[in-house]
Write a structure and sequence with these properties.
The protein is of the alpha/beta class. 40% of the residues lie in helices and 12% in strands. The chain contains 19 helices and 16 strands. It has helices spanning 2-34, 64-72, 105-109, 120-125, 127-135, 151-162, 165-186, 212-219, 243-248, 269-273, 282-285, 294-297, 304-315, 317-320, 334-345, 379-387, 410-420, 441-449, 468-480, and strands spanning 40-43, 49-52, 59-61, 79-83, 96-98, 115-118, 140-142, 194-198, 206-207, 223-224, 230-231, 238-240, 255-260, 289-293, 394-396, 399-401. The protein is globular and about 85 Å long.
Length: 482
C-alpha cells in the first residue's frame, strides 16, 4: 500500500512539474513579447497600445485631417487610399476612396495596408468595422487632438508612424513661428474686439477656450465673449451657450463668427440676422457677421494658420487688409494684384467642400493651376481672386495656368477694376485715340469715362505695365465714387 502511494505521489509530482514548466514557459513568451523593443510605440487616442517595427509604407487614411497632414509630410506615394469625402489637396482626388460607414472591411483588407488611420469617432460609430480590420492583423491607429495644445503631439505621432520626424519638426517650427508673428502684431492692439463664435446652429452652441477656434480668437487679438462656456461633455471642444446668454451680451458682441461645414455647422449670415432678438446684437447692427469654413478653423491641420489669418482680417481689416506696401513705383505681378484685390474687397478665402468637385466648372476649378503650388504663400489670394471672378485664369491644352509672375498690363487692370465694382457707363464719351489697340473696348471706355484711369496724350496704352502706385491710386478713386 505504501509502495502504491509512493507511485501516485511521484506521478502527481511529475504532472505538477510539467504544468509548472508549461505555465512558466507561456508566461516567459508573453513577457518577452511585452518587453520587446519596438521602433514605434505609443498609446493612441482610443487608449490602444500601438507597436510597430517599421514606418508605414502603405497607408489608408479615413479622416480628412489625417490625409491633409500626411500630404504636408510629403507622403503622396505612401497613401494608397483616403476617405470618401477627402478632397484636399487636389492630388487626393486621384486616390482610391473608402467610406467606413458603407463599405465591407474586406475591401480595405484586400489592399494590404500596413496602417489604417482613423479617429475616435469611427471607433465609437463603427466598432465592428474597426475590429474586422484589427482581426486581419492591420495596424489601426486612432488619433484626434481635442484641443489646440494637443496639435503638436498629434503631428509628431503621425510622423512616428510614417518615419517623417524631421519633416514634422520643420513644419511645426514654421507653424509656431508664424503664430508668434501674428501674436506680435495683435498683442498691442488697444481696442480689441469682443467675439462670439458659433459652432452649431442647433441650440446655438459655441466652443471652449482651449479649442482650435477658441485659441484662434485669442491669437488673432480678439476677446472670446463666451469664455465662460462649458463643454457639452468631458473632453469635447463644443460648448453649450444658448440664445438667452448670447442676447444678454448683445451690446458687447463686436464681431459674430459662424463656422460652416459638415460637422457642427453654424448659421449663415442671413439666417443669423433674422433670428428673433438678434437684431439687437451690435455685430449685426454694424454688419460684422462673418462665416468661416470649418476646415481651416476647427480641423487639426496646418491650414489652421489660414483660419487665424482670416480671423485677423475679420477683426482688424484696417491692419490685416492693408495693401499700402504696394504703393511703390514697381510693376505689379499677377499674384501681387490678387493679394491687393482680395484685401481691397475684404474677400474671404475660398475653401472648397466635397460637393464642389462633384460637378464640372466652366471656368477655373480650385487647386488646378499647373503653375501655382499648393504651398505658395499667395495661393489663398490667387484662388479667392479667380474663383470670385475678379482675375482670369487661362486654359491651354485642357490645363489651367495663372502665370503668377507675369506683370499686369493697363488693360488687364482696367478689366479687374470693372469686375470688382458696379461701374455704370457715362453719357459723355472721352476720345481714346488708340482704342483700336484695345481688346475690351467697352470696358476701357467705361473706365476712362468714369475717370478711374487717365489717358496719356489721349492714349490708353493698353499693353503698358502698371505699377503698384498707380493701382493704389486707381483703387482710391474707385472708393471715392462709391
Amino acid at each position: 500500500m505504501l509502495k502504491y502511494n509512493n507511485k501516485i505521489f511521484l506521478l502527481l509530482s511529475c504532472l505538477i512539474g510539467i504544468l509548472i514548466f508549461t505555465g512558466c514557459s507561456d508566461t516567459t513568451r508573453e513577457n518577452s513579447s511585452d518587453n520587446k523593443e519596438y521602433k514605434i510605440s505609443f498609446v493612441d487616442d482610443n487608449n490602444k497600445q500601438i507597436n510597430m517595427n517599421e514606418p508605414a509604407k502603405k497607408i489608408i487614411s479615413l479622416y480628412s485631417a489625417h490625409t491633409e497632414n500626411l500630404y504636408k509630410l510629403g507622403l503622396d506615394e505612401e497613401i494608397i487610399g483616403v476617405g470618401n469625402s477627402d478632397i484636399y489637396p487636389t492630388k487626393v482626388l486621384e486616390k482610391k476612396k473608402f467610406d467606413y460607414r458603407n463599405i465591407d472591411p474586406e475591401k480595405i483588407i484586400l489592399e494590404e495596408p500596413d496602417l489604417v488611420l482613423i479617429r475616435p469617432f469611427i471607433n465609437r460609430s463603427c466598432p465592428d468595422f474597426v475590429q474586422s480590420l484589427e482581426k486581419a492583423g492591420i495596424n489601426v491607429v486612432s488619433l484626434y487632438p481635442e484641443s489646440f495644445n494637443e496639435f503638436d503631439d498629434y503631428i509628431k505621432k503621425l510622423s512616428f508612424l510614417t518615419g517623417t520626424e524631421d519633416k514634422a519638426n520643420d513644419l511645426l517650427k514654421v507653424f509656431y513661428t508664424q503664430i508668434d508673428n501674428i501674436k506680435e502684431k495683435t498683442k498691442n492692439i488697444e481696442d480689441k474686439v469682443n467675439v462670439y463664435f458659433e459652432s452649431s446652429e442647433k441650440d446655438y452652441k459655441t466652443v471652449t477656450v482651449d479649442s482650435m477656434p477658441g485659441m484662434a480668437i485669442d491669437i488673432a487679438g480678439g476677446i472670446n465673449i463666451a469664455s465662460d462656456a462649458k463643454p457639452i461633455k468631458q473632453g469635447s471642444s463644443i460648448a453649450a451657450y444658448g440664445t438667452e446668454r448670447i442676447l444678454e451680451k448683445a451690446d458687447d458682441i463686436d464681431v459674430f463668427v459662424s463656422q460652416n461645414g459638415v460637422m457642427n455647422a453654424g448659421g449663415n449670415k442671413h439666417s443669423i440676422t433674422i433670428r428673433p432678438g438678434f437684431d439687437t446684437i451690435k455685430a449685426i447692427k454694424n454688419d460684422r457677421v462673418y462665416v468661416i469654413n470649418q476646415k481651416i478653423i476647427s480641423s487639426p491641420t496646418f491650414r489652421y494658420l489660414d483660419g487665424i489669418n482670416e480671423m485677423c482680417r475679420m477683426f482688424y481689416p484696417e491692419i490685416f487688409d492693408d495693401y499700402s506696401e504696394y504703393n511703390i513705383d514697381k510693376e505689379i505681378t499677377r499674384e501681387e494684384l490678387a493679394e491687393i484685390i482680395v484685401k481691397f474687397k475684404h474677400e474671404p478665402v475660398f475653401v472648397p467642400t466635397s460637393k464642389y468637385y462633384r460637378k464640372e466648372h466652366k471656368g477655373h476649378t480650385y487647386g488646378m493651376f499647373e503653375d501655382v503650388d499648393i504651398n505658395d504663400e499667395k495661393i489663398n489670394f490667387i484662388e479667392a481672386a479667380v474663383t470670385s471672378g475678379y482675375i482670369d485664369g487661362f486654359k491651354e491644352n485642357d490645363k489651367e495656368f495663372f502665370y503668377p509672375e507675369d506683370n499686369i498690363t493697363r488693360e488687364e487692370f482696367a478689366k479687374v477694376l470693372y469686375m470688382i465694382d458696379d461701374i455704370k457707363p457715362m453719357d459723355t464719351k472721352i476720345n481714346i485715340s488708340d482704342i483700336s489697340e484695345v481688346e475690351n473696348k467697352r470696358i476701357i471706355q467705361i473706365i476712362v469715362d468714369n475717370k478711374l484711369m487717365e489717358l496719356k496724350n489721349n492714349k490708353f496704352n493698353p499693353k503698358s505695365y502698371i505699377t503698384g502706385k498707380e493701382i493704389v491710386k486707381y483703387l482710391d478713386l474707385l472708393s471715392s465714387i462709391n
